Automatic annotation (TrEMBL):
<keyword id="KW-0486">Methionine biosynthesis</keyword>
<keyword id="KW-0028">Amino-acid biosynthesis</keyword>
<comment type="pathway">
    <text>Amino-acid biosynthesis; L-methionine biosynthesis via de novo pathway.</text>
</comment>
<dbReference type="Pfam" id="PF02219">
    <property type="entry name" value="MTHFR"/>
</dbReference>
<keyword id="KW-0285">Flavoprotein</keyword>
<dbReference type="GO" id="GO:0004489">
    <property type="term" value="F:methylenetetrahydrofolate reductase [NAD(P)H] activity"/>
</dbReference>
<comment type="pathway">
    <text>One-carbon metabolism; tetrahydrofolate interconversion.</text>
</comment>
<dbReference type="InterPro" id="IPR029041">
    <property type="entry name" value="FAD-linked_oxidoreductase-like"/>
</dbReference>
<comment type="similarity">
    <text>Belongs to the methylenetetrahydrofolate reductase family.</text>
</comment>
<keyword id="KW-0560">Oxidoreductase</keyword>
<protein>
    <recommendedName>
        <fullName>Methylenetetrahydrofolate reductase</fullName>
        <ecNumber>1.5.1.54</ecNumber>
    </recommendedName>
</protein>
<dbReference type="InterPro" id="IPR004620">
    <property type="entry name" value="MTHF_reductase_bac"/>
</dbReference>
<keyword id="KW-0520">NAD</keyword>
<keyword id="KW-0274">FAD</keyword>
<dbReference type="InterPro" id="IPR003171">
    <property type="entry name" value="Mehydrof_redctse-like"/>
</dbReference>
Length: 292
């Protein structure tokens, strides 16, 4: 099923993001997580891709396995900075031959420390908008294409308006929906949506939700992607930072409040960054399902 169409048909979507595990044990545990989450009947699930192509085989295998062995609609993340155009077309051809119809088209993060010196592959795509164009040139409307967006602006962007200008290029190239970077303060999301609408972008934008279950890890992610962690959340978590169960409890309570507020304000869906675990996502879903 194509996600663009599913979003048109559904009032709200629920989706889960996974990463491709490195070991057979990790893979077994991921499929256990998927089984535990399946009862929620998510609109779709997605599988991440290493920016430089490091997870190529693993991402393809997991996407195909979800597509062929579960009832779920799956979306493959595809980054472009580590590949030539031919390599990307080869990967996407493999998805097409299996029947996978959804791609999240991404540039990928430039490796840390190489911001100035990074050499983009010759005959590659420099930006996600070029990747969207490449997909449509080669596969027509076989794939429903999603793209990333950034309520607090992309870290390389000089300001939010410039970032929205380039977000629009991805939509004009053919992206049908977008999933946002994680954020912890809904005010960034609401003001982003207002600006995006003013800029004439009208595709569904699904907020990305990252429940805080490990403060150190989330802080690292948030620093990397430029997401602000609200001082009130830090204040609650810091005193218990070395007590994982308490951190998780506070993180889940916070995410429940965040999701309740988003749902009451009419968001099109919720996309959970699961980190391949089901517990936090299930708790949040159960607490807010009456609003979905
Ligand atoms: P782009 O849309 O190309 O934007 C990158 C930067 O360039 C932005 O600052 C933008 O404003 C600017 N820009 C865009 N076009 C132009 C132009 N023509 N001229 C000048 N500037 C321009 N990373 C992974 O490696 N693997 C994943 O699986 C993955 N999944 C993700 C899922 C979601 C929901 C999100 C939000 C992000 C994900 N990322 C993933 C991270 C993403 O790859 C990085 O944020 C990356 O730095 C930017 O990717 P993009 O597709 O947004 O790039």
């Amino acid at each position: 099923m194509k996600i663009g169409q599913l979003l048109k048909e559904s009032k709200r979507s629920i989706s889960f993001e996974f990463f491709p595990p490195k070991t057979p044990e990790g893979e077994e545990s991921l499929f256990k997580t998927i089984k535990e989450l399946e009862y929620i009947k998510p609109t779709f699930v997605s599988v991440t891709y290493g920016a430089g192509g490091s997870t190529r085989e693993r991402t393809i295998r997991i996407v195909k396995k979800i597509h062929t062995q579960t009832s779920l609609t799956v979306m493959a993340h595809q980054t472009c900075i580590g590949h030539t155009r031919k390599e990307i077309v080869d990967i996407l051809s493999e998805y097409k031959s299996t029947g996978v119809q959804n791609i999240l088209a991404l540039r990928g993060d430039i490796p840390q420390g190489q911001e100035e010196s990074f050499v983009f592959p010759k005959d590659g795509c420099r930006y996600a908008s070029e990747l969207v164009e490449l997909i449509i040139e080669n596969f027509g409307d076989w794939f429903s294409i999603g793209v990333a967006s950034y309520p607090e602006g992309h870290p390389e962007s000089p300001d939010l308006d410039t970032d929205i200008f380039y977000f629009k290029k991805k939509v004009e190239a053919g992206a049908e929906f977008s999933i946002t970077q994680m954020f912890f303060d809904n005010r960034y999301f609401y003001s982003f949506i207002e600006k995006v609408h003013k800029a004439g972008i009208d595709i569904p934008i699904i907020p990305g939700i990252m429940p805080v279950t490990n403060f150190k890890q989330i802080k690292k992610f948030a620093d990397m992607c430029g997401a602000t962690i609200p001082p009130e959340l830090i204040k609650k978590i810091q005193p218990v930072a070395d007590r994982p169960e308490e951190v998780e409890k506070i993180g889940i309570e916070y995410a429940v409040q965040q999701c309740e507020d988003l749902l009451k304000n009419g968001v099109k869906g919720l996309h959970f960054y699961t980190l391949n675990k089901s517990k936090a996502t299930i708790k949040i879903y159960e607490a807010v399902k009456h609003l979905i």
